[in-house]
Amino acid sequence: MTYVLLAMALVGSFCGGNVPLLPQWMGGIIGAVAFASFTQGSNAQGDLGRTMGMRLVGLVQVVTSINSELRILGKAATVGGLIFDKMMILDRKHRVKDKFVAVCKFAYDKVSRTANLVQEDIKEDRGDDRRDRPPRRDYDDDDDRRGGRPSRPRRDFDDADDDRRGRPPRRDRDRDDDRREPRYRRR
Questions:
Q1: CA dist 11 to 7, 30, 43, 61, 122, Å?
Q2: Contact 32, 16 (CB under 8 A)
Q3: Percent of the chain predicted with pLDDT > 70
């Protein structure tokens, strides 16, 4: 029973330490106490807590017995040490660690910058209520008949004196485009 209590206290401290609103040390203590008291109940919840604790104790006992028979931990430590030595030799020759750190830093900066841009776009979209409004109907011929506002005559572009006839008309920038443009420049 003592092992079960300790196992559930460890699980509780792990779970409580990952609560985002509390400091890690405080969440760990609260989680350990909550899970340990959870196993002391004489109801179905206490049975569940004790069963979970027994499973964890059984897992640790099986792992230690396998390790004592096959000596896996010692072999893994030897292999890990050899790999670490080879990596350090390779790093001394070619400065791999510095390049790896630079690539990881570049990738992290790129991802965080993209995430910030996406979050800013989401905040702008939530604040922008133009999507909620129905589209404007500037050239609706039925408005005159229904008593709405009179329709404006369409502009005829065929008689315009312009040397851009083959090209599409130039799009004037909105103030939204001017506001968004500096954010997407390369930094």
A1: 6, 11, 20, 16, 37
A2: yes
A3: 67
**Residue reference for tokens 């990952």:** 18
Give the tokens for residue 90.
């390779």
pTM, full prediction? 0.46
Contact 45, 67 (CB under 8 A): no
Determine the Cα–Cα distance for residues 31 and 8; give it in Å rounded to an integer.
Answer: 9
Residue 183 DSSP symbol: G
Neighbours of 37 (CB within 10 A): 15
Contact 27, 33 (CB under 8 A): no
Residue with token string 């106490």 = 33
pLDDT in tens, 67-108: 999 999 999 999 999 999 999 999 998 888 888 899 999 999
Quick one: angle between helices 72-94 and 44-70, nearest 10?
70
Annotate 125-148 with DSSP letters as a single string: HHH--TTTSPPP-TT-TTHHHHTS
d(CA 28, CA 15): 7
d(CA 173, CA 170): 9
Residue 136 confidence (pLDDT):
56
93/89 Cα distance (integer angstroms): 6
Amino acid in position 72: I
